[in-house]
């Protein structure tokens, strides 16, 4: 059978799984997830053995230690997969929720009901724990998952999936509910992306190259995450101590994440007071500064920032500084250079806080809070399948609700169209 | 300048328009729409003159009378464009609505606020009235619209757009808020579809060929409508008189629409009672019947239905009949042959009504109501920009709310990530 047929046949199996899951009660789905956790725990040695093959192959191929670390399954990491699945059990099931129901003049009731999306194609790279995480979230919301993991983790993924499928079957859910595409040829991804009408949604997770490839070639809707070029704007009416704490936390608490600060915008009216104190704290934290002309006039000896730097997601202890005229200048900079991810204003002024909230076009817009708080867990969404930088369907952290869609339901008693 | 540059520059103008609209109050947007209506009314003669050029060209090209009719602007149709714009003014503005707001343990308030999507690329075919309708809906929700109409209506569209742009400018909105791509070469569409990050959403409206081309080539999210293969299932516990009325209305009230009935599923327990009476009413309405073996046993002399017929959207006075064993058999047929558009069960049985509502995976699932009622106006959504057969972002009729997305907003007082 050629690649095209294999990819198609597996998708059809996944669709059969989705049709069973749409009818499954929350209790049944929760039992499947608990069973998955129990069986993964029981299979620790099997999983580590499969994982060892991947690690050996990675060493032979000369992969970096960082990549090999991401690939490695330890007892602790297997334990985390299991507790992740059990945590998902504790979350409310979004499927079946009726969002709103209203009466029409002809007497019929019309409502919107959250329902599963169907088959979710999940295309990801190295970490094998994602296999269990993504499966748990998709199944909890009533979706089948069609997984295509990276070639480096193929042995680990196949071993994990075998256990996940058995757990589904033990509760009467067809094994297609968890479908894994074990063809590592890139061609297989292109074939998946053509299966409009069978696969309902594609979520890619990995480097920018993978995501751009998927977006450019998909006939299926894609929910994706590009970069986060996040800003803090320190207004002239800010509490400057609070501004220091928020800027520092946004930059250094975990600089390698998409919601970390990349450019600090400082109101010219308080720049000469704020910047020297801020620089001291950033220096202590080992942050390298790149500044505009005005900030370099205030702070001696810092590097010069370029226009390209302002578009850069450093993911590192590097920070751009820019002195701006006022809130309008700050918002114009954000519109020109931001990636629509996370922006914060620090101010005590009510009107400027409200303008920032209303006018800045980002997935999360904050007043007086660290950009690092833009996160599914911090926002109270429960688990997170990813963060969307799209504006369609989901924007920002995506929880279980984002793995559903809303259909219309109608309760009539004989209504006709006049 | 080559096509690529023209398409890009216009998109950048549209984005400037979007940035102004995100800040515009509902009052201001309403004033723009009213001005548009007034000025279109005043320009009737200019519009009809431009339209005459399109009609003359269409005649020269030998287009069908039906197509020429769709293209033609009369005083009445211009009046409808204007009243359409005024109706949109009367609808609530979805942008700025806060859907929910909750408090986190660290004291910050997190909420979701509806905001405009940004730049909406609208790719459509012949009818020039769509130019004003789509512009009105997009602008009301705070979006810029980047229009690409069909070559047949180019003179009419250019004349309409000129008036719409002037109305925007008169209220201080940049003319890019209404951007029209006047390159009729198909290449221009492909260039539009590459402008990810500038155009935020593509809505194609037209024949299946156009929609498939757009879907296969877009790097930008697409909201689209394919076909409607709709079903009515007459359960053994139906009020058979009601079932007749609903089936007839679903099929004949306007057979050329996507929510018209294509296949009538009849429970075997009542088939021999229901079908002869139903046939009489369908015969009277001039409906041609195609039946399964069992229905042909009950009804003499009707044609035989094929498996392909069950996948067909006739958009005509033709109806498939199928006798099914029970509700499970009916739902299996719908899952195999339906397009996920609109399905109705006619029944007096509570449990079967609830099973149908919960288990059928379509944009509208109804009990005891005509499929023809799946419509933005009938559902009370106000105006409709289209009907989505996707499961992402919008499913079913799309009103103003579907032209927005929800961002997260955070009101903090110094919260940091621990």
CATH T-level topology of the largest domain in chain A: Aldehyde Dehydrogenase, Chain A, domain 1
CATH superfamily of the largest domain in chain A: Aldehyde Dehydrogenase, Chain A, domain 1
Give helix % range of chain A.
Answer: 40-55%
Q: Let me know the largest β-sheet of chain A.
A: 7 strands, parallel
Could you give the count of β-strands of chain A?
16
The quaternary state of the protein chains shown equals homodimer
- Main CATH class of the largest domain in chain A: Alpha Beta
Question: Which structural class should the secondary elements of chain A be placed in?
Answer: alpha/beta
Unreliable sequence segments of chain A = none
Number of domains of chain A: 2
Percent strand of chain A: 15-25%
- Form type of chain A: globular
Arithmetic mean of pLDDT of chain A: 96
The CATH architecture name of the largest domain in chain A reads 3-Layer(aba) Sandwich
Which chains have the largest interface?
A-B, 70 and 70 residues
Radius of gyration of chain A: 24 Å
Number of helices of chain A: 15
What does this structure look like?
Two copies of one chain form a homodimer. The first copy, chain A, is built from 15 helices and 16 strands. With 418 residues, chain A is of the alpha/beta class. Chain A folds into two domains: 3-224 and 399-410, 3-Layer(aba) Sandwich (Aldehyde Dehydrogenase, Chain A, domain 1); 230-377, Aldehyde Dehydrogenase, Chain A, domain 2, CATH 3.40.309. In chain A, strand 14 (386-388) and strand 15 (396-398) form a beta hairpin. The model of chain A has no long low-confidence stretch (mean pLDDT 96). Strand 13 of chain A pairs parallel with strand 16 (404-415) of chain B, so a sheet runs across the interface.
